[in-house]
Amino acid sequence: QEIQSHLYFALQAMQSRLNLFFVPQLFNEHMVPSLLKNREYQTLNRFLTQDITPYPIGDKQKKFIPTMGVGDVAMSLAQTEGREAWSACGAGAGYPAYFEHNLLLFRAIQYQPDGYMIIPTSENSYIYDSLQFNFNDRIKKDLLEVLKLIAAHTPKKMPIANLILSANPYALDTPLLHEYIEPIMTALHANGYLVKISFSQILKDVDLYYIVNSDDWSKNYLFFNDLLNLMHPETSRYYGKVILHPLTQIKRAGSWTKLRELFHIPDTEYLWNEELPPIVETERIKIRWAGTVPINHNGLTQIRSFNIKEMHGESLLTQNFKSQSISLILRNENNYLINSNNLHLESSYLLSKLMGNSLQLPFKGYITANNSYFAALALDKTILKIKPPTLEQPEKWRIIHYSMEGKKLLDDIVPAKETFEYSLNPYELIFVISLFN
Q1: Nearest to 213 by CA among 256, 186, 246
Q2: Maximum pairwise Cα distance, the chain
Q3: Is the peptide bond before 175 cis (omega within 30 degrees of 0)?
Q4: Alpha helices, DSSP H only, in 236-347?
Q5: DSSP 345
Q6: Other beta carbons less than 10 A from residue 279's beta carbon
Q7: Residue 235, SS3 per DSSP
Q8: Angle at CA of residue 188, ends 163 and 153, nearest 5°
């Protein structure tokens, strides 16, 4: 209501009218086909993100329900639907004071929204004090500089990923969107994908499919049949990657039997475990695996890796968990199955390996990239190590580094390499532009 009051007075002074669609954190209760077809919904032509809480990346951090991933879905859906989208954020609830600068700049680099807003929170009262906070001085100048750089380095054609959030015209009661979406969106963005979102529909002419959030895909027979045909190694005419990420039990009846055959999962492997391994290890790198969002509904199907091996299947990632070696990621040619529902943000490193292998180390924060520039927003002390998804090797990089409060720490041009590596402190932002001959 406070936001609406500020908007009302501002718009009244401008004698303007603005229709806004406020996106709550339980976004998936609204983004289902039945509402997409609703006439009243069709009149709403703007999305507004609500970036106020980060992913609870570490054990010592206070745990909030994260909002960045839900904002990613709002922005991507707006792009898919051809609607306007505004970036709104507020520091204080999990973010440090004056962090609005880095949040809005990061969203500008990601999506170039149609508008920007500061959300009043219980802890950012400084936004009302012109001596402490001035939008034009603190944010607008840097926003315009970033948008000018983006306009001068427009990315070439980006690969497209179809993120399918549901196979049915209704949403899951559990898990909720904010529990699982952040590592998926981060991995897709880190590998340079333009994300198009759909519900119970497989879009055409895309480079990668990521299908997630289903209680039982087989209830939508046509969708499930199309999905199986898409992944069939002998009859499919699709040569890109398909990543299947069921958030509930991998059943052993109905159409699920065909899916089990594809990944060589025997009927003995079906028990549902309401826990996930907290840590997984691969190539001597430890990665947080189990999601740490409060009020989560973590779980996996107990698929023992030795039984997959006996059936001549392939386990890309296994982990000893409760005295069993469990298959967490399975593969059949270009098809992948993620056997864990709500993953930690750090798991974007492992998801990235399936999508293009851009991330070279786990990153504690958010990343966006394309073939012209990339950016990273740290949530903890961390190292960004990335192979930028460029079409050709740039000659140089321009690096712009902002402090937690949005002060520019560095603006320099350095020789480019195949891999970019840079250390960041909590809540710092880095923006890197590829410079070609």
Answers
A1: 246
A2: 72
A3: yes
A4: 256-262, 305-310
A5: G
A6: 12
A7: coil
A8: 120
The pair of three-digit structure tokens given for residue 32, joined into one six-digit string:
């289902």
C-alpha triplet 193, 195, 198: angle, nearest 5°: 150
R_g of the chain, CA atoms, integer Å: 22
3-state secondary structure of 347: helix
Q: Which helix (H) or strand (E) holds 384?
A: strand 382-386
Place of tokens 């508008």: 115
Residue at token pair 């270009």: 334
* DSSP category for residue 282: E
pLDDT of residue 303: 97
Q: What is the DSSP letter of 429?
A: E
Q: What is the pLDDT of residue 170?
A: 55
- In this structure, are residues 194 and 371 in contact, taking their beta carbons and an 8 Å threshold? no
C-beta separation of 431 from 375 below 8 A: yes
Report the pLDDT value the prediction gives residue 232, as an integer from 0 to 100: 87
Q: Which two tokens stand for residue 345?
A: 């943000």
Contact partners, residue 129, CB within 8 Å, separation at least 6: none
Instruction: Please report the pLDDT score of residue 135 as a whole number.
Output: 83
Residue in the structure block whose two tokens are 């410079």: 435
pLDDT by 10-residue block (mean), the chain, 437 residues: 42 48 38 37 64 83 83 90 88 84 96 90 84 84 95 92 79 74 97 92 94 74 86 87 93 88 95 95 95 87 96 96 95 96 96 96 97 96 96 94 96 97 97 93
Give the pLDDT of residue 39.
35
Please, what's the b/e burial string for 286-322 (b: 16 or more CB within 10 A of its CB; e: otherwise)? ebbbbbbbeebbbbbbbbbbebbeeeebebbbbbebe
Identify the bridge partners of residue 86 per DSSP, sorted by sequence position.
48, 115
By three-state DSSP, how is residue 376 classified? strand
What's the pLDDT score for residue 294? 82
Amino acid at site 101: H
Contacts of 323 (CB under 8 A, 6+ apart): none
pTM of the model: 0.89
Number of residues written out for the chain: 437
The token pair that represents 384 in the structure block: 């960004």
Query: How far is it, in rounded angstroms, from Cα 163 to Cα 73?
Result: 9
